Every structure is written in C-alpha cells, then in structure tokens.
Amino acid sequence: MSHNTFGHLFRVTTFGESHGPALGCVVDGCPPRIPLTEADIQAELDRRRPGQSRFTTQRREPDQVKILSGVFEDDRTGGPVTTGTPIALLIENVDQRSKDYGEIRDKYRPGHADFTYDAKYGVRDYRGGGRSSARETAARVAAGAIARKVVPGLTVRGALVQMGPHKIDRSRWNWNEIANNPFFCPDAEAAAFYETYLDEIRKSGSSVGAVIEVVAENVPVGLGAPVYGKLDADLAAALMSINAVKGVEIGAGFASAELTGEDNADEIRAGNDGAPVFLSNNAGGILGGISTGQPVVARFAVKPTSSILTPRRSVDREGHDVDVMTKGRHDPCVGIRAVPVGEAMVACVIADHFLRHRAQVG
Amino acid sequence: MSHNTFGHLFRVTTFGESHGPALGCVVDGCPPRIPLTEADIQAELDRRRPGQSRFTTQRREPDQVKILSGVFEDDRTGGPVTTGTPIALLIENVDQRSKDYGEIRDKYRPGHADFTYDAKYGVRDYRGGGRSSARETAARVAAGAIARKVVPGLTVRGALVQMGPHKIDRSRWNWNEIANNPFFCPDAEAAAFYETYLDEIRKSGSSVGAVIEVVAENVPVGLGAPVYGKLDADLAAALMSINAVKGVEIGAGFASAELTGEDNADEIRAGNDGAPVFLSNNAGGILGGISTGQPVVARFAVKPTSSILTPRRSVDREGHDVDVMTKGRHDPCVGIRAVPVGEAMVACVIADHFLRHRAQVG
Amino acid sequence: MSHNTFGHLFRVTTFGESHGPALGCVVDGCPPRIPLTEADIQAELDRRRPGQSRFTTQRREPDQVKILSGVFEDDRTGGPVTTGTPIALLIENVDQRSKDYGEIRDKYRPGHADFTYDAKYGVRDYRGGGRSSARETAARVAAGAIARKVVPGLTVRGALVQMGPHKIDRSRWNWNEIANNPFFCPDAEAAAFYETYLDEIRKSGSSVGAVIEVVAENVPVGLGAPVYGKLDADLAAALMSINAVKGVEIGAGFASAELTGEDNADEIRAGNDGAPVFLSNNAGGILGGISTGQPVVARFAVKPTSSILTPRRSVDREGHDVDVMTKGRHDPCVGIRAVPVGEAMVACVIADHFLRHRAQVG
Amino acid sequence: MSHNTFGHLFRVTTFGESHGPALGCVVDGCPPRIPLTEADIQAELDRRRPGQSRFTTQRREPDQVKILSGVFEDDRTGGPVTTGTPIALLIENVDQRSKDYGEIRDKYRPGHADFTYDAKYGVRDYRGGGRSSARETAARVAAGAIARKVVPGLTVRGALVQMGPHKIDRSRWNWNEIANNPFFCPDAEAAAFYETYLDEIRKSGSSVGAVIEVVAENVPVGLGAPVYGKLDADLAAALMSINAVKGVEIGAGFASAELTGEDNADEIRAGNDGAPVFLSNNAGGILGGISTGQPVVARFAVKPTSSILTPRRSVDREGHDVDVMTKGRHDPCVGIRAVPVGEAMVACVIADHFLRHRAQVG
C-alpha cells in the first residue's frame, strides 16, 4: 500500500479525479490465460454505479470500462484472456455537470478532505472532491472484477448490516435478498424499514452512516504472510482506505473484547475427510494472520456523508470563519455504494495473498 | 507491509521465535544524527516486559536490548547518534523454561495459529508459539522507541479503555493514572475494579479481551499518502498485525455509523493564528487519509488469550479429535501488554509518513 | 523495480502493447505545484518518435500524449501544475498497419522475446512484439519529461558514442551537434561517417548495435541509498530494463578494471568555496553509491536489432525447425532511439533518489 | 532494492559496520522445509573469508555464522529445515584491530565513500569504512548460501576472467581450476601469471581492478518479470550494488554493440525432446528480460582498491587540502573476493525470480 498502488503481487494502481477527463487503473501481476472481457468488469461496475435509485447520488455516469492492454485472444480457445502483462482499464467521466464551484473552491467543507489536501499539497482539484471523491472507487471495483477470477472457486459477497443505529436481524440473513432492494441488505424486513428511514434522512438533507459486512468463501487454507503481511492486516488497510471508512473488524471483531477465552476460541473437530472443521467462526476465518479455510468475514463502518444541506461552521483558505452548506447531488448514505467497493477490496487482497502463498509454498 | 517488514521509508524488519536464541529487528531508513542509546530503547521495552505483575505472564525475560549497528558517536556532540545506516537491535531469549512440549507439539490449540502455520508451512517451531508468539512484539516496541524520536515533538500514549465488557468512564480520563496501575488504565476507579475482576478471571484459568486506545499528539498536518497509503489505512494494518487484534477504528470509529452527517463532521473555526481549529474530533485527526493536526486517535480490540485451563475440543496433526488444555504461564488479559505495542506501531506509522510527506512535499 | 513499476517514491507504472488501442503510464509520488503541460511532455516524445529519418522505423506514430489526471490549475499562477496525485498519461496507437501476422504468430524470431514470453505466459500478443516492443519506451520518455522537472537545475543529456565497432572521437565532443544529425551524435565527423555506414547496413537488411552515454549535471551531492538502493545500482537496473540493452557502466566502467589504484581514484582539492573539487571523474559522479556532485555518467550497450532480412534458423510453437526472416519496418540501429529513453530513465532514477534523500535527511 | 533490502519475495536485509560488534542479515520469504544448517552457510562464507592468501586483506576474521531464527527441526526428517519465517544470521566482528583512526577520521580518502557518506548523513562510522566496507558483503554471501537451495538443481559459479588489463584465455576455461588458485581463476596459466603480477602490485603498495564472470546453470525457462523486473535488470542492480563495481554486462554485453544482427541473435533448432536448443548464447540466457533456459551469464567490472600506499591529493572535513596515504591491511585486488559475492547476488536474484514466477504462473 503506497500512495496510489496496493497489493504486493496482484498490484492495482489507480488514477483520476472526479471531474477530470477519465479515471482508471492498471492491474499488474495478474496471472496469464484467465478469460476476461469488458463485460465481466462492466457487470461489477454496474452494481456500484450511481443514480440507480433515489438513495444514491443522481450523477449519471455510465461508467463504461475500456480494456486498453493486457488481454489478447487465446490461441487455444480463441477467446480473450489475460496475457500476464499489465491490464489498463479506462473509465471516462461523462457527467461533469457544469457548476459554480465558487462555493467550495475556497471553503473547507467539514468532514471532507478539502482542508487536508490543501494543507498537504498547496493545490487541489476542488471539483467534486477531486482525487478524494468516491468516484475513485469505480477503479477499485473494476480491479476487483479481475481479482475475483484469480482464485479458483472464490466468492466474495457484501451486505449492508446496519444503517444509522439500525442493525439487521441476522437470523433473517438471506443472500438472495441483496439484489431485491437498493441497499444490498440481506434482511428483507430491515430493507423495508431502511426505505422509509432513509427517505426521511434524504428529504431532510441529512445523511447517515452504515456498517458493511463482506464474506469471502472458498478461501484456500494458508493465505497470509505473517507477521506484517497478515491477511487481516492487509484486509484492514484495504478496507480502511475506502472513502469514509472509520473502522474495520474481522470475525467477532470488537465484540471479541467482551468474550472470555472459553467463548471466543473456535473449537475444532475432525471432519469426514480428516480435515479440521471449526465449530464456530469468531476468528472470521483467520488465525495468526493466516486463513483457516472458513469464510473470511470482515466488517467496516462508513461514516455519514459529510455533504449535507444544514449549514456547518468552517473556515476558508484565507482563514476566515464561514458557513458551508453543500448543495447538489449526494448520497444520503454513502455506505450503500461502499458494498461493491468493499467486496472488490477483499477480492483484491485475497488474490494478492493467493499469489504470495503460491510463491513461497508452491 | 510485506511478510516481516513494515513501513515504506522508516522500515522495520523483525525476526525471531519465542524459544529461539534471540529475537530482534532491523530499522532501516532512520534519519541520521538522532541521539540514540540502548537506554532509550530499554525504557520502552521495560514497559512491555512480562512478569511485572500477576496479571501478565510469569515468564521472566529481562528483554535486554543490544544495538548492533547504525549508531556512532557524533563528532560534534560526542554522544551516540544514528548514522542513517540500518539499526540492528538484538534481544536474547533467556527464560526458555525447559518443558515437555508433547502436549502442544501435535495438537492444535483452538484460537491459536497452530493449525494455520502447519497448514501453510508444513513445519513450525511449536515451542511457546514460535513465530506467532507475542514475544515478537518486543521487537516492535524497540523499533517504536526509535520512531518516537523521528518526529519532533511527537508524543504517543496508549491506554486500556475496556476490559471484557467493562468500559472505563471517559470523564475520569487522567493520563497520569496510566503509570499507577498494572493495566495502563487512565481511569483510577476502573483500574481498581479491573484488579478484582481480572484476579477472578486469572484464578479460574480463564481469560478476557480488551480495547486499547492510542493517542498521538503533535502530529504535523499533512501526513498520509492518499489513496492507498492513507494514514488511517496504514494505522489499521499496523494495529491489526498485532497478535490477537480483531478490530481497529479511528476517531468515532464504528460509532460514526450511527451518527448523522450533522453530528459526525467536525466543525471548524479560525484560531488566533488563522489556522483552523476543529471543534470536535470524530475524525480522529484524519480526513481523506491525511492528518489534520488534531490528535490522531486509534482504537483496537484484543481478543481474550486463547490459552486457558478449561479443556477445549480440537484435533491433532493426524486428524484425530483431541481435547486441549493449556498449562503453563499465560496472560489472563493479553490486551494489557498490547498497550505499549500499540503505541509503538502508531509511532512507527507516523514516523514513516513523516518521512514520506517530507519526500514529496519538502 | 517490480513487474511494470519502477521507482520507490517517484514511481512509474507503464502499460500497453505495440498494437493495442493505447499505451501509457501512471506517475505516482510526483511533488505538487510543478508546472506541467502536455506540450512539456510532447517535446520529449517528439525526440523519440519513429519515422523521423530513414534510420528509424518507418512506422508513423504521432505519439500524441494526453494528461488524464494529476494536473490542475494553480490558484496562484492560474497555470496547470501537478497536484501530488497520480499523473496518468495516455498515448493512443494510430499506425497499427494491417498486416498478416501468420509469419511470426507461430515462429520464434531469434533474438526476440517471442519464445520466452510464450514459455512464461503460454499466450502473448504477437503483433509487433506486443508488450516487448520498443513502443513501450514512449511511456518511459513521457515519465522522464516529468522527472526532469522534479530536481531543480537538473539537466540530463544523452549521446550515441559508438555505432557497431566505430567509436566517436571524444576530443570532438560537442553537445550542440546532437541536434544536427539523426544519431544524437556529439561528434560531427563520426555522424557523417555513421550516415554512410548505416545506410549500407540498412540497405543490406542488416542491423548494428550501439553504445549510448547519458550525462546528468547538477545532481545534488548525497543522492543514493546505500547499500542496495545505491544510485548506480538503480541506474543499472533502469538502463538494463530498456529493450535490447546488454551492458551498463558508470564512469570509467569496465575500463576501470584495467587501471591501478593510483590512476583510478579521483583526487580532490578544495574549491574556492571550500567544497571539494574532483580532479577527474572516473567514478562517474558516484562513490559508495552516493552522488558526489560531479556529473553522473552512465553508458549502456544496445545490441543490434534482431529483426533482419537474412533468414535465420529457429523453431515454431510446435517445435518444428523453421527459417525466420523479418519483413516490415525496422530500425537498422535501435540504439539511436534509445538515446532519449536512456535520458528518461536516468532522469527518473535521479528524481526518485532526490525524493528519497529529502525524506531521510530533510 | 531499497536502502538495505533487496529482493521482492526472497528478501534480504543486511546490517552492520566494519568495526561494530556484529554484522548480519535477515532473509525473509524463504520457502519452508528446505534443509539448512550453519555449516551450509559457513562453507560459502569460508570461500569469501579474508586472510586466506597474501592476495587478500590480512584482517583475520573467522566469520562464524549463527542462525538466530527461521530454522527448526522437521518432524519428518528430524533435521533442521527452514520454517518459512525470517532467517536471521549473525556474524560477530572479532578482529577490529585497535588502531589510530586519526588519519582517516577527518580526511576523505580518494575513491572511497568517505566524502559522500559525510555529505549525505553528516556523520559516519569511519572505522574501517563503516557501512561502506566490503565486510558488508559477508552478509550477502550468507544469504546467497540459502538462495542456492531455493531453486532445485541450480548451480551458480563465478570466475575471475581479467586482472588489470590481463584477460584469461577462454579456450583454457576449466571450472576445476577455480579451487586450485587464490584467484578463482579458471585458466591455470593465467592464474600462474597473476600470481607474479599481483605480487608486484602488492609489494609496490598499489592495486588493480578485475572482471568477474558468474554463470548460473539449470535456471528454469520463464524467470523474469518484464518490463521493469526483468531478470537482467535485477541482476544489473544486484551486481552493481557490490562495493567497487563499475560495470555489469549480460551475455555478449558491450561486445554485442559491435555485432550485426546476423551475428548477435542466437539461432535455434528443435532438440530431441522438441524443446528449443539455442546454437549460441550471446543473449546470456535472457531474452526480453526472461530466462531462456540457457546458462545465465553475467560479468562485472571491479575497480582497483582505492586504499594504496602512494599519497593522493584530497581534502579534509574542514575543507583543507591534504594528502592521504592508506596504511594497514588491504586487498591488492579486491575483485578476487568479489567472486563469491557475485555468485551470491546472482543466486539471490534467481531465487527471487523463481518465487515471483511461481506466484504469477503457478
């Protein structure tokens, strides 16, 4: 994880600002001969795309991806496959709605990166948040679509498990519900409630946070490079790097602090094939930084969108007190669109560790 | 963060197993001409050392550090200073109590890394947990002692803010109390309660988790390399890499998910010197991955020690069902000794980003 | 240097194949507020562009660069400056002449990477050499144009000092001649000779190698990260990574092996300002891996273009003996166009070490 | 390659100064279950050890290596094997002969790194060259001993092929002669000549350079990560990072510049098993940055030892003109002891790429 690149062997470098001509990424280190089309990537991008319901920003971006390199026809199958060379993906920005940026050009919006970017770099593209915009996450989702194909059998799915203070009822968890509501919510009843709840938030010009859970299944045993490249350490960095994320936990997470040793450690029995079967999964599929073969479970907290209609106290670049009110198109709960982004980051980390493990252990 | 190295410019590589001849680290990239003695490092190591109260493992390790390289007399001051070359630190293991390891040699202790190390590598040093032992964290603390000196004025302090389900009362927070109890607890009343509570846990052969908070003050504005080297992303990885940690949060953390945009975003006013003054710190000192100049606040959850006296169900290397009971010396709350470790990791991350920022921005 | 990225802090990631839709690069870690326009980059690209004389490939590529990100108007000057975020550069491929690739699709051209790419990846874009084409170096030159602006006062110039067995006369070295001949040759007489010589080579369908020298002036004292990030070690890797390069030397280079200690070590006297003045530069401006302040002098050998008209013995993908003759557009001396590429690589390495040095030493 | 670490997956971090308490390295990323003893490493160190003939420095160092971590008994074989965790190696300095360093403490020895270290860091351990001493290379040789075991069947051998202006006769090349003379020279007649020649150099207090050739056999086809992690690019960096090296070449190297395309490109025929057989090896076993399966051949030039008895002009730290004459123990041809060092670096690079290749391609 350095500047705009993450991953050690499955390396993703992203670029682009919210209102520049384009954004995209270069995926380096991908194994060769993996079937890959633009449609594969587009399918994931479409899940993250804004403007699909009234609960996400009304910016209309087709987010159409182009593969610029790294894919060529396979002489055996004739179909397009990765070649082992860098895969460059490009997404052009289309809906950079012309707008008066005078309001935010010189004022620091509370909760946003306006002040810190200015303090660090002395210059910034203020249009739509520039580099710190959530639009950057489209590149992550595109990269994640490739990562998913690197590990045989891997599935990575995300779900919104809490909106504001309202948690889902985990006993009603049904992965099939995810596609049935605009919140990626696995609990149909909670989703119905969220619809009313978020409408109110939206109409009042306010916003609210969320908690997202990502579950990766069919993760091979043994992934993770202790002690600083632990699988959970890399997951934590990857998820914390998503815009607006303020917390990450694995398995029982913060709740494990409340448990006793008896309750927390997952007991084991021999399975039919002699392989260990864990009787619970407080570990979230990771022990000592290495995957156990159980589902890898990560959760992250997304703060409420800082762009709200209520004026907030702030300062401008010249150091004068000002009030800031953010007009325009915004997500009342930016956590919703973080679901496919979280999935993508988890997929990339697992793909990276899959390659790292194969390198060291064969 | 890759295998056994972390940091991009202030790079720490650690080595060593619990019961091998020695452990230690190499700190590379440290700026030159920083005064440094073994005593500076020893002072930090002594805070982490086991056997200082009945609440930490009774293993008796002096944890005496030796500087093997990278320090030489300054021709101006005559005192020892860093030379800009790698600083190697060595800590010899002394109390490798002779013991029958038959019990754990072939059995996988639930909650430990026994199974995953074996599954990954096909071989492991099972004595005292080998590489996955918390003894490795001594090297982190040693490195952290150097990191603290890299950033002028920086202070990094940690505190235990929750033991089991029992949180401290933050209104009673007093940093001076930290040194007055064996828990690094800033709330004297809570500390008194923990003493009784943990004695009970300890006597019953059980264990309990904890939450640790680390606060870094005088962090310069502008540290952090968006978007994948964000300061919070690197903190998350660094803290999650500590043994037994299952969750990390920054500022309001998971609680921010429950807030509205109005309540979460920290408002700003101009200070007397024109510099922005934040009216709250839900952000934990980081916006858009870049430090704001406010205190950087990170919190992490430590699971209960998995070594307990109650027999737990497991399997052995041959795939037979067995029961495992961990005898011997253990911490009833491994979170306590994680406090100086957490401080060290935060100090290292900030030192690294201090150098990275200086590189890019001058 | 890892896969398709080089540089530690000034990081360049390139992508693209010879006959794909586009090639380009992402430059990450560039300091902010450096004035930068497409024209700045285009000027360097134009020096490398093919088809400018009969001595370079007749492929007609405008090599028009687009800046996709990382540059924005400066609020103080109004002009475009770097923002500290990744700078993505795109060059579309235009002249992918339609052609029958049957000849090289299945045959391994001797001296080319055809066999090794196939052996490594099991698939490759065979059109025009795919990823192993010298077209990739356009992205290097583009990145180098930015690197040149990172180090104040830095100048990096390259010259062809040998073609085939024919060396220039160094006593006639005149940097101004570089622009007066199609060879980047600083010796006008040698250039005149090369014109006749290379015409003959070209007409016979043969090719010939070359030696290129790159000189960097105004390199600050102190750059280089001993002992594995030595300035010369990174220069060696950077130059050796250029297509067709088979040797790299610094200062006196291989000739230093023939010298005695008396003749080789550059003597020093105090200059008027007390700073050391070296009386010779066998060291090529680098001692112990660190720049001395003298000009940094690197030289590299470029093998003859492997694409020639004379049939050569080889095998095809099925393992049958075949003869291969490379028709089409080629450089009779690929070393010529390596001059701006070598400059770019040297500039990038120095920019990287400028930032690394500033990080550690301030 | 960054500061004091090299390698991407097989990572070596070295530390230590010439006259400090100890030097050593940490080897991270080594595959598990490779048999490894101290004797394995010692055997390589003994080949590099000073004081074995009158042609190398008379410093008497046993260079006894200790394994501090990363090796444990294998439960299947009972013998010591790598565990996949970091292998720390320690070599204590013994013969730090007490000496008056007044002479070199403040004077910059021409050809040495004295001035540049001081200019960069403002402080340095001047005793015996400190970090820039060739003693550091003992750690490389130790790491190389491990690297050799990573790639099945790999052999890496080095030879001195030129001393001063005197080249060996390659038609007399006999690997068995290497062990029969103190020069690692494969040509017995040349070795006999060198003995007289170097005695003269030595007695006159002078020194002379050398060229070393390293040949790696049984390198699997396909190693190398184009385009910046090319096998030859990494070899170039690794060899150039050795003390006193000023040039590196692969295969025909600089001589390839003099060849035509017809003569340079190695022709291919199908072997009995259908696999390509190269009819020559001008490529030095590498095409497009990827190994061909032929022997990898690298050559590097070592400058003459800068420590000589003849006084040379220089300056001191205060900027006064001085004369410097280096008394004490020195190598008249430091290139001799560079042979095992070069082998070690080549072995490490190949081991690293072996793992990198396995990661990407399986």
Structural notes for this entry:
4 copies of one chain form a homotetramer. Chain A is of the alpha+beta class. Helices cover 24% and strands 22% of the residues of chain A. Chain A contains 8 helices and 18 strands. Chain A has helices at 38-48, 102-105, 114-121, 137-147, 188-203, 231-240, 261-264, 338-361, and strands at residues 5-6, 11-16, 22-28, 65-67, 71-73, 80-82, 87-92, 155-163, 166-167, 210-217, 245-250, 268-270, 276-278, 286-287, 290-291, 296-302, 312-315, 321-324. In chain A, the strands form 6 sheets. Chain A has a 5-stranded antiparallel sheet, covered by helices on one side. A 5-stranded antiparallel sheet of chain A has the order 9-8-10-16-11. In chain A, strands 5-6 form a two-stranded antiparallel sheet. In chain A, a hairpin with a 4-residue loop joins strand 1 and strand 2 (11-16). In chain A, helix 1 packs across helix 4 (137-147) and helix 1 (38-48) packs across helix 8. Strand 11 (245-250) of chain A pairs antiparallel with strand 11 of chain B.
Biggest chain contact:
A-B, 112 and 113 residues
Determine the structural class of chain A based on helices, strands and strand pairing: alpha+beta
Beta-strand percentage of chain A? 15-25%
Shape of chain A: globular
Which key features would you list for this structure?
homotetramer; 362 residues; alpha+beta; 5-stranded antiparallel sheet; 8 helices; 24% helix; 22% strand
Short summary of the structure?
With 362 residues, the first copy, chain A, is of the alpha+beta class. The first copy, chain A, is 24% helix and 22% strand.
